[in-house]
Write a structure and sequence with these properties.
Blueprint: E1 9-12, E2 15-18, H1 24-41, H2 51-66, E3 76-82, H3 84-87, E4 90-92, H4 99-109, H5 126-129, H6 132-152
Antiparallel strand pairs: 1-2, 2-3, 3-4
Helix pairs in contact: 1-2, 2-4, 4-6
Length: 161
């Protein structure tokens, strides 16, 4: 018969992390590791350290505490970016497989985070804070950053531009 496969996943700081498919018991163990990673990433004592270094250290130490080797998890990473202002939906980047690639992807999209919080009408709207010329320029830079994120993941970016 067919056996069920599970993928442990967690989301924090606009990042989504998934493990390789596994059986239920292993999936629960992986979820414990990922939850420990999330808790360590939220530690205010380490916020001064760059994101990639904090994440790599949290992955290694959490895996060591709960499971063994972080390489065994075979992690995939993606960035989730609220891009409603630009495209009317949430943007989920293609999966990357290293913390370094994840960091690069985050840095590509970081300048556009300020546009995701302005919602609704009145003074909270982006049109209240930015000129049409500025927003048109930001749209062009956003499309370029998204295409670069697709390229970084080894995916075809021609449809993104």
């Amino acid at each position: 018969g067919s056996r069920s496969r599970y993928i442990a996943g967690i989301c924090f700081d606009a990042v989504e992390i998934h493990t390789k498919p596994c059986d239920f018991q292993t999936g629960l163990e992986y979820l414990v590791v990922l939850t420990a990673v999330k808790q360590k990433m939220r530690d205010p004592q380490t916020m001064h350290v760059c994101f990639e270094q904090r994440l790599q250290k949290a992955l290694v130490s959490s895996a060591k505490e709960h499971r063994g080797d972080s390489e065994e998890l075979k992690l995939d990473f993606c960035v989730i970016h609220s891009a409603r202002f630009f495209i009317g939906a949430e943007l989920r980047t293609p999966k990357v497989h290293t913390v370094e690639q994840l960091g690069k992807t985050r840095r590509l999209l970081e300048p556009f985070r300020k546009y995701q919080y302005a919602k609704g009408g009145g003074r909270r709207n982006n049109f209240w804070h930015y000129s049409p010329v500025h927003l048109q320029d930001a749209w062009g830079r956003f499309k370029k950053a998204v295409a670069e994120a697709w390229d970084l993941a080894g995916r075809d970016s021609s449809r993104v531009r």
